[in-house]
Amino acid sequence: MESLFPVVVFLAIATLGAALARRLGLLAPIVLVVLGLALSFVPGFPQVELDPELVLIGILPPLLYVAALETSVPAFKNNIRPILLLAVGLVLFTAFVVGLVLHLLLPQLPFAICLALGAVVAPPDAVAATAVARRVGLPRRVVTILEGESLVNDATALVLLRVATMATIGSAVGTAEVAVEVLRATGGGILIGALGALVFGFLHRRITDPLLDNALSLIIPFAVVFTAEHLHASGVVAVVVTGLLLGHKLPQLLSAASRLQIGAFWRLVRFLLEGLVFLLVGLQLREVLHDLDEPVGSLVITTFAVLAAVFLTRFIWLFPATYLARLVPRVRRRDPRPSPKLPIIIGWAGMRGVVTLAAALALPLTLADGEPYPRALLIWLAFAVIVFTLVGQGATLPLVARRLKLPQDDPVQDALSAAGVQQQASRAAQERLDELADSAPGAVVDRLRRAVEDRTNMAWERLGGTERETPSQAYGRLRQEMIDAERDVFRAARDSGRIPEEVLVQAYRDLDLEESLLREAGK
Length: 523
Fold this sequence. Notes:
Layout: H1 4-24, H2 28-39, H3 52-69, H4 73-78, H5 80-105, H6 111-121, H7 126-136, H8 140-168, H9 175-206, H10 210-230, H11 235-253, H12 256-283, H13 285-290, H14 296-323, H15 329-334, H16 341-348, H17 354-361, H18 375-404, H19 411-436, H20 442-461, H21 471-495, H22 501-522
Helix pairs in contact: 1-2, 1-12, 2-12, 2-18, 3-10, 3-11, 3-12, 3-17, 5-6, 5-8, 5-14, 6-8, 7-8, 8-9, 8-11, 9-10, 9-11, 10-11, 10-12, 14-16, 14-18, 17-18, 19-20, 21-22
Family: Belongs to the monovalent cation:proton antiporter 1 (CPA1) transporter (TC 2.A.36) family.
Subcellular location: Cell membrane
Membrane topology: Multi-pass membrane protein
């Protein structure tokens, strides 16, 4: 009971914080971090010591898995060059620059532990990127690049952190050892992820019960990450590969009922976990400050230098990576030179989050031979990077996006493409109906033909703008009023005892499904 109470309190606060953010028109991650920072100093408020293993094994896998499930594999492949330049190249560049800056400021610290901190603060957070980028309304390609970067960069950083930690505690680390570690972590993660997609895809295809499908989807990220970590491979890479492969095939693996239930389930899980994560990050402030014993002047200088290194390296890397690649004719033909607005907004969106804090808490307690070092300082620096990038850059990202006036995705082109494909789909449906028309009454066939025509007309109506109500919108408005009236009748019949509760539940379920279809069609 006592251990469960703080969890319920944190979830309740995270939910209220997210509701407050929506009411104020602010980004929920920013509000929750600030709320956590404030609550960390409230006397008597429950404090929680963040366990890095809980974050990296318990919280991160499901969030990475659902993000990978929703990532378009074709879009990921089309943007693989910028994604890898950020997720691998930029992470290594940032880690070495931050490590060098820290070593110059604190020469008594071995470069290996400085590099470990660089690996800790180098990767932007998957949760923050997804939560903020979509909420701000960035162009689709920018969101794809940021999400793709955040799915892969944790693996790069954690492998580098593992190598740097081995060197810190006195293990011999040469080129061969690094190569073996990278191959085992990355290559092993890819193989385990692909095998996981094969096994769990087979199980999804065989399962027909939506509840079992839903339960399996919850097990998948943990089963994959546990297997990968047991074999000393990268659990992050394994989960991402499994999610990408299964997400691409999900329409063929699941029934309609399973897809609807799994979609609703993961939306709830992501909402709760994201809220909990950002709140917990803020709540760590008091504990982080408690362990600090550095002189204030030295602390301020070191913190400012690391923050500047983290912020500037992203832009220093982005502009050459964006434009030097276009000197290659093949790249230039496939991907013309973009506006400078693109690297600016991607650079500004480099927010760190809970993975950085968890990795910092996983730093070794001592150096080689048990020699102490200012571990609390390194944890503080990681925490400062999180707060600066998440609150500072995250809060100003909408303003930067508006000032840059980024070219938005063309809704007319999207609607035109959707209408064209819907036309083809309707034609295929009509042809299949013609083949089966003799097996059903004529009235049923006519009703189905009208339904197909209505779907086609609805797709083309979206091209007409929003100046006036379309026939489909009028249908949705009137049908909603009719559904409300039907609900009232069923509820009154249940209250008067004319129908049992089970009849009411089934009737409400049918009406709820129809209403949800109306709402989706009206978007």
